[in-house]
Amino acid sequence: MGNRFREKVTEEGLDRDLVQEELGHEVEPERVDEFERVDEPEPEQEKSGKSGKGDKMAKGISKILGGDILGDKLVLNQIPLLLLCLFFLLLLVANRYKVESLSREKMASMERINDLREQRIQMQKQYQKSVKISQIAEDLRECGVGITSGPPYEIEK
Predict the structure, then answer these.
(1) What pTM was computed for the model?
(2) Interatomic CA distance for residues 103 and 110, integer angstroms
(3) What's the gap between Cα 83 and its chain centre?
(4) Which of 20, 49, 144, 145 could cross-link to 140 by cystine, CB 3.0-4.6 Å?
């Protein structure tokens, strides 16, 4: 809205019809000259010599904060691309979340597998020990030596 007004300002001054169109209501002819020209630089800017990069940046920031940038044709043409980028960004975040949850699940499963392996090894050792004792007991019975059910004792002479 503001850009259209700036482009139509004539060299002689402000046009009454243009001012009325921009403001949306009638303006008295003597009040047309009260409006400032946009094209004329302010005298203090010319003296300070800062009309370069800082002024452009301030205008750019005010254009972004004021919302005028959303009305530019260049930005309007890029909206489908921005929406596509937003979609891909959301897809990336969702995918990252899913992969992270799967990774946590995998780590928990690996930890459980390691615990079960340790348990199996301990049970296997106990089984081998019991098999060894029972095998020794059978061999002793074949030789005629019995296994006592109580604790061993010493024979005194």
Answers:
(1) 0.40
(2) 10
(3) 17
(4) 145
